Amino acid sequence: MDMIADFDLTAHNTFGLKSTADRAVLIDDAAMLPELAKASAETGRPLKILGGGSNVVLAERLDAIVAIMRIAGRSVNQQTTDATIVTAGAGENWHDFVVWTVDQGIAGLENLAGIPGTVGAAPIQNIGAYGAQLSDFFQSLTAYDLKTGTIETFDAEACRFAYRQSAFKSEPGRYVILTVTLALPRTWKAKRDYAGLDRLPEDATARAVLDHVVALRASKLPDWRVLGNAGSFFHNPVVSAEAARAFEDAPQYPQVDGTVKLSAGWLIEQSGLKGFRLGPAGTYDRHALVLVNHGGATARDIAALATHIRDKVRIRYGVDLVQEPIVL
Ligand code: EPU
After folding, report:
1. DSSP H helical segments within the chain, as ranges?
2. Which domains does the chain have, with CATH numbers?
3. Interval 183-213: pLDDT, tens
């Protein structure tokens, strides 16, 4: 197995943070995992899986074996009376996978277009955007359990999906997701209820929704190729209906269980931090929830900025913001 020493990960994370891995390896086959687990145990270097690097804060030095996920493959497995069942390898690019389904006339994932990262990372934080989330379509996944050395299948219940949450977030480092299988309902109607999508006609095609979502994202979020970022940096806080009364002027999204989701971007902007800069890191001047790397930032710079933001928002609003990207 080809392990590379002192591997530069700067181009492998969308934040563009300066980071070097002690050892790195490209993983394109699940059969490599037992050997990698053995190498990890023998050297005392933890095994860390990196997908598209779009939701991580990478430390400047990773004393680890970093396995860059490249397991490929996309297939339409089955047509049931209700759904089309599709499977993709964990290393596939998520957006390309969405486009591939829509190009084949399989609708459903178009609202989730444009999200950076890999298919394997999608279930970890139950990616969501524009009125849809992965769990709406999830059927099952396979994952290698580094603790037992076996390949397990998880159904939706086992994944314990919630808003930006799954079982994989509570046991980081244990499972390596290998494939993800989705069920895309055959009865389809364009989902246009999220702000900005209502401009689409009622009979919009999945392709039209996809293109619109991509354009909407481009108008709001910075392109990581131009300005390093990891998308939303904090979860939108969910508070009780009673607590939400204190936020009369804020955008509010009532949830089915009676709680209310607030907008972290709004709280940060109202705290005077939209476009704020601290060293080489800052908040995006068109969307305060996105932290950006103005050039040469490290994990320390991002952490200092995140702490500053959390402190300001806590003091002003009494809300504790929870970080979204995983620290590797
Ligand atoms: N807002 C402000 N100021 C800002 C930014 C936003 O007041 O600087 C307000 C907006 O005006 C709007 C509300 O906040 O009323 C919500 O903003 P937006 O529609 O941009 O969505 P968001 O809640 O900030 C979430 C997801 C995004 C996803 C969008 C669209 C989270 C943490 N983020 O953002 O996901 O694309 O909705 O569905 O739930 C990501 O996770 O990386 C991500 C980009």
Report:
1. 33-43, 94-103, 156-159, 167-170, 206-220, 241-244, 264-270, 299-317
2. 4-69 (3.30.43.10), 74-215 (3.30.465.10), 222-327 (3.90.78.10)
3. 999 999 999 999 999 999 999 999 999 999 9
